[in-house]
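Comment on this:
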Amino acid sequence: MHDGLRQVLESDMAMWVRDRFPLLPDLACHRAHNAVRSLYRAGGIATLEDMKYREGARGNRLPATFLLSHAMEEAVAALVESARRAGYGKPTGSASA
């Protein structure tokens, strides 16, 4: 895995966030875990191969990019599910036209 990504995923802030996953609603908790798992897999896949690209970068970009996109989708879904369960977005009673 790329050292920069590993530093982010294993930082104190990332550990603090992951320690709070169980506080999320079940669906959001599952999605949050999927997001982190996809980030780890993407980081590993990106450094698996020794192929050289035009820019000189190494790794298998296509699957890694897919997993990074999946991680982003799961993180957003977890956030939206948590906000929905917390009551954000419900009408407040008065609508202005």
Q: What stands out?
A: The two ends are 52 Å apart (CA to CA). The mean pLDDT is 79. The CA atoms of residues 61 and 88 lie 37 Å apart.
